[in-house]
């Protein structure tokens, strides 16, 4: 049976920012294309390669990869806070398959996923995150040290190999990116209070979460006005990355380095690791072609914002 792919940027600012109306309409048109693509493909199961923003994973234990056997939403930025429909036996089988191919992967029987993972499913299924069985697959995209991109590619390829010959329609989702540098503390330069949050800050008080979210929203407004002290978006880098995705030459992802990405695309550009895993998973199933690509650099969302879809040839 076929496999397909949908990769898209996410932003907690979708409902908290005011880009120009033509930008909002273009993004909504891209989302509608993604919904139509998903409805027509009608997946039996979704493999969701998602990041985390220090809501479910912290420095007290930060794996490069983790497969969730059970999972629930953290509810940050008013995102989905319920249980995900995770086929536990399949998740267990997938984790063993990946490890048998030499890729060390953590597992979680109580994974917590934030807006970065659930927002695509909210958009695709009109808020019903549990509309399809999903395998939540965490790819560390925010906390150093980062696995080399070659390792991310191999992880995605192993996941793809697992599904290549199975008799079900599988949709690989990659969520995040592209270039952006939102106000996330970096451990080496963080205050002691920030370091404590980065290490063990799960389940904050409502007041603490609201303050954190308000800071991000305020930064986005200053950034759109040209007043925020964060790195600018890099449309050239974004388009070059999208060109690699479209080429099918997934080994070309290997040239991306953590230091290089920080320097030219921002500290949160590492979310494209979810795209690398998803495209590598699809490529492991066969040659593919990108059937749709949307891209806009959107300062109000602090993101080089993209949506792509792909089918096997």
Q: How many DSSP E strands?
A: 10
- H and E order: EHEEEHEEHEHEHHHHHEE
Say which CATH homologous superfamily is assigned.
LigB-like
Structural class: alpha/beta
Count of spatially separate domains: 1
Average pLDDT metric: 94
Taken from the alpha-carbon principal axes, the silhouette is globular
Radius of gyration: 18 Å
Could you say what the CATH architecture is? 3-Layer(aba) Sandwich
In which range does the helix fraction lie?
Answer: 25-40%
Low-confidence stretches: none
Number of contiguous helices: 9
Q: How widely separated are the two ends?
A: 13 Å
CATH uppermost class: Alpha Beta
CATH topology: Protocatechuate 4,5-dioxygenase, Chain B
Strand content: 15-25%
The biggest sheet, with number of strands, parallel, antiparallel or mixed sense and barrel status, is: 8 strands, mixed
Q: Strands of the biggest beta sheet: in what spatial order?
A: 5-3-7-2-8-1-10-9
What brief labels describe this structure?
alpha/beta; two-stranded parallel ribbon; Protocatechuate 4,5-dioxygenase, Chain B; globular; 19% strand
In words, what does this structure look like?
This protein starts with a strand and ends with a strand. It is an alpha/beta fold and 313 residues long. It has a single domain, classed as Protocatechuate 4,5-dioxygenase, Chain B, CATH 3.40.830.10. A hairpin with a 4-residue loop joins β9 and β10. The model has no long low-confidence stretch (mean pLDDT 94). The chain has an eight-stranded mixed β-sheet with strand order 5-3-7-2-8-1-10-9, with helices on both faces. The chain has a two-stranded parallel sheet with strand order 4-6.
């Amino acid at each position: 049976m076929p496999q397909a792919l949908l990769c898209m940027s996410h932003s907690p600012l979708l409902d908290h920012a005011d880009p120009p109306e033509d930008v909002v309409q273009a993004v909504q048109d891209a989302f509608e294309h993604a919904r139509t693509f998903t409805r027509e493909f009608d997946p039996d199961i979704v493999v969701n390669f998602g990041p985390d923003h220090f809501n479910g994973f912290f420095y007290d234990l930060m794996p490069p990869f983790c497969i969730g056997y059970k999972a629930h939403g953290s509810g940050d930025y008013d995102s989905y806070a319920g249980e995900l429909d995770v086929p536990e036996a399949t998740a267990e089988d997938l984790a063993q398959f990946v490890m048998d191919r030499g890729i060390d992967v953590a597992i979680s029987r109580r994974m917590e996923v934030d807006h970065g993972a659930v927002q695509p499913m909210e958009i695709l299924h009109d808020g019903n995150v549990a509309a399809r069985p999903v395998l939540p697959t965490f790819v560390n995209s925010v906390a150093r040290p980062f696995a080399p991109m070659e390792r991310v590619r191999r992880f995605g390829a192993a996941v793809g190999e697992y599904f290549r010959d199975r008799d079900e329609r599988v949709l690989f989702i990659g969520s995040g990116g592209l270039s952006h540098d939102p106000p996330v503390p970096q451990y080496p330069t963080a205050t002691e209070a920030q370091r404590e949050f980065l290490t063990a800050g799960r389940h904050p008080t409502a007041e603490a979460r609201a303050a954190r979210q308000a800071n991000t929203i305020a930064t986005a407004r200053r950034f759109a006005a040209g007043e925020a002290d964060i790195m600018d978006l890099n449309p050239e880098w974004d388009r070059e990355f999208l060109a690699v995705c479209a080429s099918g030459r997934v080994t070309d992802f290997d040239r991306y380095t953590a230091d290089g990405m920080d320097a030219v695309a921002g500290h949160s550009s590492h979310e494209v690791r979810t795209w690398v895993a998803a495209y590598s998973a699809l490529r492991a199933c066969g040659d593919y072609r990108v059937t749709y690509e949307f891209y806009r650099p959107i300062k109000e969302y602090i993101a080089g914002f993209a949506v792509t879809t792909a089918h096997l040839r």
